[in-house]
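Quick one: co-fold with calcium ion.
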Amino acid sequence: MRRVRVLIVEDERKLAQAVASALKGEHYDVVVASTGEDGFFRANAEAFDLVLLDVMLPGRSGLEILRTLRQRHIDTPVLILTARDGVEDRVLGLDLGADDYLVKPFALPELLARVRALLRRGRPSEAFRLKAADLEMDLVARRAIRGDRLLELTAREFELLEYLLRHQGHLVSREMLAREVWKEPRRATPLDNVIDVQMARLRKKVDSDATDRLIHTVRGVGFVLREGEP
Ligand code: CA
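Sure, here it is.
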């Protein structure tokens, strides 16, 4: 799987560094451009999955960059970063083809959530497809298929299956699921039951009409998604 590449065009050095390190923490490849010219050059010359674009930049404004990229049919998702009083910038930015905006100052978890949402909406690529046996997930279209059967999954079941697929062949504990899928930092007993119920529903949808089971329970420990067992 190739890594997701993000371009940050931001002249405020401290902010650019904080955003870059938050994104690196999520295992994205990050490139920082600190002037409008450099940002424009890179966005034109290199392939990115997402551009974070400050509006007020020395050299060339974020909105000018955005306009030119869209005129050249470079349709990489763009998240613009605007000042609190920059209402017109936000409206103009969205009109020019920005995919979302965030008002400064923003919290980094909020930024990461927006980034994830935009990447899900972005164009299909190798990075956004997962596969095991005849099970396939398209993370962009938010679609899961087993054989020729489209799986009707809830949002939570989708996330759960995605997590299992990303860790296929490896044991996934309830604690990992609570932390990574349910985003609960501390594991609570009631959540174990919720996880078991959700997992039972998911397994029914994934495995009940198939000859090979993919999702297995490891008693007392957790679950594993594995190919090639009856
Ligand atoms: Ca700026």
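If it helps, The mean pLDDT is 88.
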